[in-house]
Amino acid sequence: MTITVRPGCTVMFTGDSITDCQRLESEDGLGFGYPLRIAGEWGLRHPDRPVTWLNTGIGGNKVMDLEARWQTDVLDARPDVVSILVGVNDMSRHTLDPKEYVITAAEFEAGYDRLLAPLAEAGTKLILIVPFLLPIHGVVEAGAGVVRIGEEERKEWRTDLDPKIQVVRKLALKYGAQLLDADGMFAELAATTGPEYWAADGVHPTPAGHAALAAAWLRLVE
Hints:
Elements: E1 10-15, H1 17-20, H2 34-45, E2 52-55, H3 63-73, E3 81-85, H4 105-121, E4 125-129, E5 140-142, E6 147-149, H5 151-175, E7 178-180, H6 182-193, H7 207-218
Parallel strand pairs: 1-2, 1-3, 3-4, 4-7
Antiparallel strand pairs: 5-6
Helix pairs in contact: 2-7, 3-4, 4-5
Protein backbone atom coordinates (compact mmCIF):
# COMPACT_ATOMS: atom_id res chain seq x y z
CA MET A 1 0.00 0.00 0.00
CA THR A 2 1.39 3.39 -0.97
CA ILE A 3 1.75 6.35 1.38
CA THR A 4 -0.79 9.12 0.92
CA VAL A 5 0.88 12.53 0.97
CA ARG A 6 -1.75 15.03 2.05
CA PRO A 7 -1.76 18.81 1.52
CA GLY A 8 0.40 20.55 4.10
CA CYS A 9 2.45 17.45 4.95
CA THR A 10 6.11 17.71 5.86
CA VAL A 11 8.32 15.17 4.11
CA MET A 12 11.90 14.76 5.27
CA PHE A 13 14.81 13.08 3.49
CA THR A 14 17.82 12.15 5.59
CA GLY A 15 20.97 10.09 5.37
CA ASP A 16 24.46 10.58 3.99
CA SER A 17 26.06 12.31 0.98
CA ILE A 18 23.75 10.61 -1.52
CA THR A 19 20.90 12.53 0.07
CA ASP A 20 22.88 15.62 1.12
CA CYS A 21 24.05 16.64 -2.38
CA GLN A 22 25.29 20.05 -1.24
CA ARG A 23 21.93 20.97 0.26
CA LEU A 24 23.39 23.76 2.40
CA GLU A 25 24.66 25.46 -0.75
CA SER A 26 21.27 25.34 -2.47
CA GLU A 27 18.65 28.05 -2.17
CA ASP A 28 15.84 25.65 -1.30
CA GLY A 29 17.93 23.45 1.01
CA LEU A 30 17.26 20.31 -1.02
CA GLY A 31 20.58 19.98 -2.87
CA PHE A 32 20.92 18.75 -6.43
CA GLY A 33 19.98 15.09 -6.03
CA TYR A 34 16.93 12.87 -5.79
CA PRO A 35 15.14 14.94 -3.07
CA LEU A 36 15.05 17.94 -5.42
CA ARG A 37 13.81 15.78 -8.29
CA ILE A 38 11.08 14.30 -6.12
CA ALA A 39 9.92 17.70 -4.90
CA GLY A 40 9.86 19.08 -8.42
CA GLU A 41 7.98 16.17 -9.93
CA TRP A 42 5.49 16.13 -7.07
CA GLY A 43 4.82 19.83 -7.52
CA LEU A 44 4.26 19.32 -11.24
CA ARG A 45 1.84 16.43 -10.70
CA HIS A 46 0.01 17.81 -7.66
CA PRO A 47 -0.19 21.60 -7.62
CA ASP A 48 -3.28 21.22 -5.43
CA ARG A 49 -1.30 19.37 -2.72
CA PRO A 50 1.57 21.59 -1.54
CA VAL A 51 4.16 19.85 0.62
CA THR A 52 7.01 21.07 2.81
CA TRP A 53 10.17 19.25 1.74
CA LEU A 54 13.16 19.02 4.09
CA ASN A 55 16.60 17.50 3.62
CA THR A 56 18.84 16.75 6.62
CA GLY A 57 21.34 14.45 4.91
CA ILE A 58 25.01 14.95 5.82
CA GLY A 59 27.87 13.54 3.78
CA GLY A 60 29.85 10.78 5.47
CA ASN A 61 27.16 9.95 8.01
CA LYS A 62 26.72 6.46 9.40
CA VAL A 63 23.78 5.19 11.43
CA MET A 64 25.52 6.24 14.63
CA ASP A 65 25.94 9.77 13.27
CA LEU A 66 22.25 9.99 12.44
CA GLU A 67 21.43 8.77 15.92
CA ALA A 68 23.54 11.51 17.51
CA ARG A 69 21.53 14.25 15.77
CA TRP A 70 18.19 12.47 15.39
CA GLN A 71 16.27 14.49 17.97
CA THR A 72 17.22 17.94 16.72
CA ASP A 73 17.46 17.23 12.98
CA VAL A 74 14.50 14.87 12.58
CA LEU A 75 12.18 14.34 15.54
CA ASP A 76 11.90 18.01 16.51
CA ALA A 77 10.67 18.84 12.99
CA ARG A 78 7.72 16.44 13.52
CA PRO A 79 7.64 15.29 9.89
CA ASP A 80 4.71 13.32 8.52
CA VAL A 81 6.91 11.22 6.24
CA VAL A 82 10.59 10.36 6.73
CA SER A 83 12.72 8.84 3.97
CA ILE A 84 16.05 7.33 5.05
CA LEU A 85 19.03 6.25 2.96
CA VAL A 86 22.01 5.21 5.06
CA GLY A 87 24.47 2.34 5.12
CA VAL A 88 27.22 2.92 2.59
CA ASN A 89 29.43 4.63 5.19
CA ASP A 90 28.77 1.77 7.61
CA MET A 91 30.30 -0.53 4.99
CA SER A 92 33.96 -1.51 5.41
CA ARG A 93 35.15 1.96 6.38
CA HIS A 94 38.43 0.43 7.49
CA THR A 95 39.29 0.09 3.78
CA LEU A 96 39.60 3.88 3.70
CA ASP A 97 41.14 4.15 7.16
CA PRO A 98 42.63 1.07 8.89
CA LYS A 99 41.95 2.77 12.25
CA GLU A 100 38.22 3.02 11.51
CA TYR A 101 35.95 0.94 13.71
CA VAL A 102 34.36 -2.04 11.92
CA ILE A 103 30.57 -1.83 12.24
CA THR A 104 28.87 -5.21 12.42
CA ALA A 105 25.46 -5.95 10.94
CA ALA A 106 24.11 -6.41 14.48
CA GLU A 107 25.33 -2.95 15.53
CA PHE A 108 23.95 -1.46 12.33
CA GLU A 109 20.57 -3.06 13.02
CA ALA A 110 20.43 -1.92 16.64
CA GLY A 111 21.26 1.66 15.73
CA TYR A 112 18.86 1.79 12.79
CA ASP A 113 16.10 0.32 14.99
CA ARG A 114 16.65 3.11 17.52
CA LEU A 115 16.13 5.65 14.73
CA LEU A 116 12.85 4.12 13.62
CA ALA A 117 11.21 3.35 16.95
CA PRO A 118 10.28 6.93 17.97
CA LEU A 119 9.06 7.73 14.46
CA ALA A 120 6.81 4.69 14.43
CA GLU A 121 5.51 5.58 17.88
CA ALA A 122 4.61 9.05 16.58
CA GLY A 123 2.76 7.57 13.61
CA THR A 124 5.26 8.88 11.06
CA LYS A 125 5.15 7.20 7.67
CA LEU A 126 8.48 5.65 6.72
CA ILE A 127 10.33 5.03 3.46
CA LEU A 128 13.55 3.04 3.79
CA ILE A 129 15.92 3.11 0.83
CA VAL A 130 18.23 0.11 0.60
CA PRO A 131 21.91 1.14 0.41
CA PHE A 132 23.54 0.14 -2.84
CA LEU A 133 26.89 -0.60 -4.46
CA LEU A 134 27.25 -0.85 -8.23
CA PRO A 135 29.91 -3.18 -9.71
CA ILE A 136 31.79 -0.55 -11.69
CA HIS A 137 35.01 -1.36 -13.53
CA GLY A 138 38.50 -0.07 -12.91
CA VAL A 139 39.92 1.85 -9.98
CA VAL A 140 38.51 5.00 -8.37
CA GLU A 141 39.89 7.31 -5.70
CA ALA A 142 38.14 7.59 -2.36
CA GLY A 143 38.77 9.12 1.04
CA ALA A 144 39.61 12.56 -0.38
CA GLY A 145 41.77 10.90 -3.02
CA VAL A 146 44.14 9.16 -0.62
CA VAL A 147 42.83 5.62 -1.19
CA ARG A 148 42.37 3.74 -4.45
CA ILE A 149 39.41 1.38 -4.59
CA GLY A 150 39.56 -1.48 -7.09
CA GLU A 151 37.79 -4.75 -7.71
CA GLU A 152 39.09 -6.51 -4.59
CA GLU A 153 38.05 -3.66 -2.31
CA ARG A 154 34.60 -3.59 -3.87
CA LYS A 155 34.25 -7.33 -3.28
CA GLU A 156 35.07 -6.70 0.39
CA TRP A 157 32.51 -3.89 0.48
CA ARG A 158 29.84 -6.10 -1.09
CA THR A 159 30.47 -8.86 1.44
CA ASP A 160 30.04 -6.31 4.22
CA LEU A 161 27.03 -4.57 2.68
CA ASP A 162 24.81 -7.55 1.89
CA PRO A 163 23.96 -8.38 5.53
CA LYS A 164 23.18 -4.71 6.16
CA ILE A 165 20.83 -4.68 3.19
CA GLN A 166 19.01 -7.58 4.81
CA VAL A 167 18.79 -5.53 8.01
CA VAL A 168 17.02 -2.72 6.15
CA ARG A 169 14.58 -5.22 4.64
CA LYS A 170 13.92 -6.73 8.08
CA LEU A 171 13.30 -3.33 9.68
CA ALA A 172 10.98 -2.26 6.88
CA LEU A 173 8.83 -5.30 7.63
CA LYS A 174 9.00 -4.71 11.37
CA TYR A 175 7.81 -1.12 11.11
CA GLY A 176 5.50 -1.43 8.11
CA ALA A 177 7.70 0.93 6.10
CA GLN A 178 7.78 1.32 2.35
CA LEU A 179 10.97 -0.27 0.99
CA LEU A 180 12.80 1.12 -2.01
CA ASP A 181 15.18 -1.63 -3.16
CA ALA A 182 17.74 0.66 -4.72
CA ASP A 183 20.43 -2.04 -4.82
CA GLY A 184 18.24 -4.39 -6.81
CA MET A 185 16.95 -1.57 -9.00
CA PHE A 186 20.42 -0.40 -9.97
CA ALA A 187 21.62 -3.97 -10.59
CA GLU A 188 18.76 -4.44 -13.02
CA LEU A 189 19.33 -1.11 -14.73
CA ALA A 190 23.08 -1.68 -14.99
CA ALA A 191 22.55 -4.96 -16.83
CA THR A 192 21.71 -3.06 -20.00
CA THR A 193 23.67 0.18 -19.69
CA GLY A 194 26.67 -0.68 -17.54
CA PRO A 195 26.94 0.38 -13.88
CA GLU A 196 28.91 3.59 -14.47
CA TYR A 197 25.90 5.13 -16.20
CA TRP A 198 24.08 5.18 -12.85
CA ALA A 199 26.98 5.79 -10.42
CA ALA A 200 30.40 6.58 -11.81
CA ASP A 201 32.18 5.54 -8.60
CA GLY A 202 29.70 2.79 -7.74
CA VAL A 203 28.26 4.76 -4.82
CA HIS A 204 27.28 8.32 -5.73
CA PRO A 205 24.54 8.48 -8.38
CA THR A 206 24.93 10.32 -11.66
CA PRO A 207 22.07 12.64 -12.71
CA ALA A 208 20.44 9.57 -14.30
CA GLY A 209 20.92 7.64 -11.07
CA HIS A 210 19.27 10.37 -9.03
CA ALA A 211 16.41 10.45 -11.54
CA ALA A 212 15.97 6.68 -11.16
CA LEU A 213 15.86 6.98 -7.37
CA ALA A 214 13.31 9.79 -7.60
CA ALA A 215 11.08 7.86 -10.00
CA ALA A 216 11.16 4.77 -7.77
CA TRP A 217 10.44 6.85 -4.67
CA LEU A 218 7.43 8.52 -6.29
CA ARG A 219 5.95 5.10 -7.04
CA LEU A 220 5.69 4.55 -3.27
CA VAL A 221 3.46 7.57 -2.63
CA GLU A 222 0.16 8.90 -3.88
